Amino acid sequence: MKNKVVTIVGLGLIGGSIARVIKPFVKKLYAIDNDKGIIKFAIEQCIIDSAPKNPLGESDIVILCIYPNASLDFINDNIDNFKKDAILTDTVGIKTPIMQLYNKLKPHFTYIGAHPMAGKEVSGFINSEKQLFDGANFIITPSDDATDEQISVVEKLAFAMGCDIVIRTTVDEHDRIIAYTSQLPHIIATAMCDTPLLVKHRNFTGGSFEDVTRVAKINENLWSELFLGNKQHISEQIKIFTASLEKIEKAIINDDKKTLIQIMRKVRLDKEMVDNADPKG
Q1: Alpha-carbon torsion (76, 141, 132, 87), positive or negative
Q2: Predicted local confidence at residue 281, as pLDDT
Q3: N or C: which end of the chain has fewer CB within 10 A?
Q4: CATH architecture assignment, domain 5-169
Q5: Which pTM was predicted?
């Protein structure tokens, strides 16, 4: 990494946090952002380096840290500005749209999708922090033409960020699993708070309610794009979740204590097994 020039596109929460932590590990670190004030501040604070007119043309690695639709626009608008044989990676929460565009364009750079599994309920560079990715999982979705050497570069980037476990998978597998582990919880939290009861009974809430609804403090512009961009997998997960709710509701209506106990015992044992498992196993 020490001989690599890196450009981060988007100095928000994620891009800003990456910038804060990787600068000592790279040759030069540039950034592109619509807010020139943030760029100026980051340079003054020595978080990034002062960039040339076309940082993409000098960058060995480009990291997209912007919304899904903006990522597609950026690639289309800058297709000829990338350095030959550069690595394009990203932090976007869905992978299929970018991979489809990449396969269509067949550009002179290589796309290796990435998804650090870390974040906060707030956004913006002001909330970025050096420790955001400490101990986090990092998912890589390489394109078919990515070499082992190029993939290794992105893995080194993950460890430089502070991530603990790097997982390699396909684009479709990523989007299918993320629909369950990330997007469905945000949908459930949103639905839980989509009621007048939220305000009316705010003094009746405790830890369990706060745990379930924490991510309802959602960035609606970002998450609407993520939901729409992964609609098929999300729809499948909503159907599975709804079926589970209906099974529990039926047991309650029928005073079926035995079934309720069976459901909850199985869930408890499964959750304990997952929590106690070796994450590197």
Answers
A1: negative
A2: 66
A3: C
A4: 3-Layer(aba) Sandwich (3.40)
A5: 0.93
